[in-house]
Amino acid sequence: MLSIQTNNLTKTFGPITAVNRLNLKIRSGEIFGLVGPDASGKTTTLRMLCGILPPDEGEAEVAGCDIRKEAERLKEKVGYLPQRFGLYGDLSVLENIHFYADLYQVPKKERKDRVRRLLQFANLEPFGRRKAQDLSGGMKQKLGLICALIHTPEILFLDEPTNGVDPLSRRDFWLILYELLKEGVTILFSTSYMDEAERCNHIGLIHQGELLIADSPSAVKTRIGGTILELRLEDHQRGMKRLEGIKVFRSVVLSGDKIHVLVDQPEEGERVIRDVFNMEGMTLLGLNRVRPSLEDAFVSMVKEKDRSSR
């Protein structure tokens, strides 16, 4: 069963096409990651699917609602945590939660147990009287999540919720999301972090408003073809400059403290790499064939798209 389905969903802002003919199918009870860099169309997509922003073209059905015709009914069925959630700093944790419960018209008789359960769920129960402005970044995001869940939505939209959050809080946040999946909540999660994309059931790679691919993380990585050559050098920046633009390399990516080079013919690729660095007098500390990462897949698909559009 599908919770979200779009057909050629499009949104423009003047001459800029923010989302271009987007086609998505997201199953109920899964976590789907919409992955891409800043200004790729992730936020615009989420805002359209929440019924906040009307599309210019195309159609979408979310939780059984037509986003054009049933935007108000849709808002009762979804929760939305934007990048900058509207917490009130001078209100306490509990006061913020009750404010959003009032907005969603959560019945008073159901509210007490629900608030207590959500506070326990997010490990915020000891901080109920603390003002929101005095919370850490991770705690603020968890409070925002509680406010988005207070009306028990079927679908949860999260717009880069862990951006700028410390690693420990990111881990806690994901533990909460996995618990929500057990309760049958469908989650659409936007992120620019490739390691977070690995944790999703399915992902969609989006670039300049266009969906490049939608599949499981493992399937996306196998779709690029070719072989990844992983290099270790003393000066990676200099190495990148020497390798970029060589035709036998489909992509060159700095991955942590290593360089990943995508090639069709690994033997030829290794020979060219050794020849380049020998000519430059640079020492190659390591050269291995490795499995592609999501970052490798994303960069490769973007380059292929750019080449085909020329």
Name some characteristics of this structure.
single chain, 310 residues, alpha/beta, six-stranded mixed sheet, five-stranded antiparallel sheet, 11 helices, 37% helix, 29% strand, globular
Task: Count up the helices.
Answer: 11
Beta strand %: 25-35%
Gyration radius (Cα, Å) is 22 Å
Biggest β-sheet description: 6 strands, mixed
The helicity comes to: 25-40%
- The parts where pLDDT drops under 50 for at least 5 residues are none
Tell me the series of helices and strands, N- to C-terminal. Answer: EEEEHEEHEHHHEHEHEEHEHEEHEH
Number of strands: 15
Question: Structural class, judged by helices and strands?
Answer: alpha/beta
Structural features, described:
It contains 11 helices and 15 strands. By secondary structure, it is of the alpha/beta class. Strands 7-8-9-4-10-11 form a 6-stranded mixed β-sheet, with helices on both faces. Strands 1, 2, 3, 5 and 6 form a 5-stranded antiparallel β-sheet that branches. Helix 3 runs parallel beside helix 5 (137-149). The radius of gyration is 22 Å and the shape is globular. The two termini are 39 Å apart.
